[in-house]
Specification:
Length: 219
């Protein structure tokens, strides 16, 4: 990670936020599971239940797919299949209740926000969820392994790690945030339960995105 001082928001002592998308802002667990089950069915794999999916899905998703389908599977082919199924079946996740209220509040306070997600259709869904709104300075989407992107994101956005929160719902998010030296917030609104996230020891574990608002007073 670069040693230069990041300037963004330091003068006003405002935090920066990096948000995961799925399970943090977008309630897409069910539709992502449905997409994977439709894709796996093409290979003769029985459908996973929600509990089975929660217990086995991981990021980078390549690891998950290889565990289900074997090491010889072509991940590029799977990525194309996933996108085709997701779009072809008109999967329509919904925004997690209360999320936009938080994004609007942070925007009014001059807080800079970005998205870092492995999901391929974040920009498309942002336009559907928040038409005409510009909550995010930049969207980093379709990133299979977020560890490969986090330092570049901090540099491009001029985010000082000491003034930056990474909000995610999976182990991979917490690991990525710790790697970059930012503060980590785990949410239980998505793909993992509190019990699954606790061993990662994030700085905070919250039950809803609304709960980040009080944190602004300690930044």
């Amino acid at each position: 990670m670069t040693n230069r001082i990041h300037r963004s928001n330091i003068v006003n002592n405002k935090p920066n936020f990096i948000f995961d998308w799925s399970g943090v802002i977008s309630n897409d667990l069910d539709v992502v599971l449905q997409t994977y089950n439709l894709m796996f069915a093409e290979y003769g794999i029985a459908a996973l239940s929600l509990d089975e999916f929660r217990n086995t899905f991981e990021l980078p998703y390549e690891n998950f797919c290889r565990r289900i389908l074997g090491d010889e599977i072509d991940i590029a082919v799977l990525q194309d299949k996933f996108r085709q199924i997701y779009l072809g079946h008109n999967m329509t996740p919904s925004v997690i209740p209360g999320s936009e209220d938080v994004l609007a509040l942070l925007t009014r306070r001059g807080v800079k926000m970005t998205i870092l997600s492995s999901h391929s259709f974040v920009s498309r869904e942002i336009e559907r969820y928040f038409p005409g709104k510009n909550y995010f300075s930049k969207v980093y989407e379709d990133i299979p392994d977020k560890r490969t992107c986090i330092h570049n994101l901090l540099d491009e956005m001029e985010f000082d790690p000491m003034h930056t929160y990474y909000v995610g719902d999976m182990e991979h998010d917490i690991i990525t945030g710790k790697l970059a030296g930012v503060r980590t917030i785990a949410l239980t609104t998505g793909y993992r339960t509190k019990e699954m996230l606790e061993p990662l020891e994030p700085d905070h574990i919250l039950d809803n995105l609304r709960d980040i608002v009080p944190l602004l007073n300690i930044c």
